[in-house]
Amino acid sequence: MDTYKSSRINHLEGFFSQVIDSKQPCIKISHAQRGQMTYPRLLTWKRVALALTVAVISSGLSAAAQSQQMVDKLMAIKTAQDANKAKLAQYTWTETETISIKGEVKDTKTYQVQMVNGKPQKTLVNDQKASSGGREGRVKERVIEKKTEEYEEYGQSISALAKQYTTPNSEALMAAKQAGNISIQPGSGTVSLVIKNYVKQGDSVTMTVGEQTHSPVSVQVNSYLDDPKDAVTISAQFAQLPDGTNHVATTTINGVSKQLTVNDQNSNYQKQ
Q: E-assigned strands of 131-259?
């Protein structure tokens, strides 16, 4: 037993002994009863005090161990993420983005993507908008065009929001830890970080990482744009390339209020 733990036990045992031997009202033993108390009974009281002391100290040590375990896990995630960025920068890939409204596909875009200065840079390759399906008057065409622009802008906004959640941010994770906003849930070969107030106040995130790789496996998010009433849900799945490079495979983003869904799929990874 280390010196600190031993000194704490001796200190608290002495405290409980004083309480037992004193006239504190919380110990309902009369003066006569105290005088008649035998050595075995006193020994029993001291054993109870010692047991309570050990329980208190063990609880504190357990909390400290859990806190250190979380710090170690967050640092491992940061290390893995930094290494993965360097590996991902060697690749180009294709991103297919599909925008649907009330389940009906309105637009499908294809991008060529590569990492530039640590951030993905997209180049539009193809844009296939859904046909209106008939002749429209000029006024109605303008209304449709304006509505389409609004939905496209909204789709871009919720897609940008999703990127903040699907790329692990070590600083935000550590800040959440310091605020007491992360808990760890072990799984089968994975560990889930359950986080609140991660990117926005009131959001909730479940980030599942591989127990050995420390790389993301999936992310589930409940968030919003500017107003909490404008709810956005995000579900992302990750995959690994043959050399172990981790990447976002698919992302589904739902803008609840507008019934708009953005589906992103990344494929065709090629080394530059």
A: 182-186, 190-196, 204-210, 216-224, 231-240, 246-255
Contact of 225 with 232, CB cutoff 8 Å:
yes
Q: Could you identify the residue written with the tokens 């608290």?
A: 12
Give this prediction's pTM: 0.73
**What is the CB neighbour count within 10 angstroms for residue 118?**
11
71-109 burial code (b ≥16 CB/10 A, e <16) = eebbebbbebbeebeebbeebebebbbbbbbeeeebbbb
Token look-up 């404008």 returns: 230
CB-facing half-sphere around the CA of 181: CA atoms within 13 A: 19
Q: Residue 31 pLDDT more than 60?
A: no
Asked if residue 113 lies in contact with residue 121, where contact means CB atoms within 8 angstroms, the answer is: yes
DSSP conformation letters of 35-84:
HH--HHHHHHHHHHHHHHHHHHHHHHHHHHHHHHHHHHHHHHHHHHHHHH
Q: Where are the domains of the chain?
A: 3-77, 89-271
Per-residue pLDDT tens digits for 239-267: 999 999 999 999 999 999 999 999 999 99
Rounded distance between C-alpha atoms, residue 44 and residue 41, angstroms: 5
Residue 220: half-sphere exposure toward Cβ, Cα within 13 Å: 5
**101 forms bridges with which residues in the sheet?**
104, 260
